[in-house]
Amino acid sequence: MVLRDIINSQHIPVIRLTEVFRQAQASHIITNAHRINAGQFPHLTPTVKFAQSDCLWLEAPEPALGTEGIAHLVSDFLPKHGINPVQQVQILCPTTRGEAGTRQLNTMLQQVLNQPMPNKVELHRGGTILRVGDRVIQQVNDYQREIFNGDLGSIKAINLEEQEVAVQFAEREVTYDYADLSELALAWAVTIHKSQGSEYPVVILPLFMQHYILLSRNLLYTGLTRAKQLAILVGPTKALGMAIQRVMDRERYTALADRLKALSG
Predict the structure, then answer these.
(1) pLDDT digits (tens, 9 = 90+) for 104-137
(2) Burial per residue of 119-149, b for 16 or more beta-carbon CB atoms within 10 angstroms, e otherwise
């Protein structure tokens, strides 16, 4: 049985995001976040039981299967449940590298969610294709344009003659010259680090052993709590267990207590 068959192995009724997923009056995203913080394995619900939880799990032993699963989630599974992946879904990764990193996932997701069409202008720049309709992220603070590191937008227009790209950030449209396009990157998938301080209706969180250097309890907690209405974790249980076991927060030793004692003495 292939991964797509596992996802679709039973009939699932259509559930809209206007409905609130609750059991015992508590979001599973919240309760699982507390469990992770306490070093406990979360209670995850398989994707085939979509209606039962707002915190789902798609078992994928290898990154290649995980990538296939993510492609199916955004192209078929989630749209069947009334979720618009272009507007509502954000993929959050531990790192930019590897099969399940942001770089390769962005290439795949661009092809799935924003396919080339005769009426869509696109631009090849530095090995990357930027296309009208692409989700992009600002990578540096740009005080002149008042756009800052981590801001998400979408490409509204590309003027090949004027060599300009117009990006919509919330209520503002910002124009970039070609020379400034290095400030932008595709953002169908972004790193968990870049997502801190942000929230998204739906989060897909791939976790694999290829990410082992970065896997930690804090990283998993941060990624999970970015989801407001639905979270889907993708990967093997081994990677999830490693993340829960590893606490990588570094304590800061400032000797502040000793200094305060000295001052009070």
Answers:
(1) 999 999 999 999 999 999 999 888 999 999 999 9
(2) eeebbeeeebebbbbbbbbbeeebeebebee
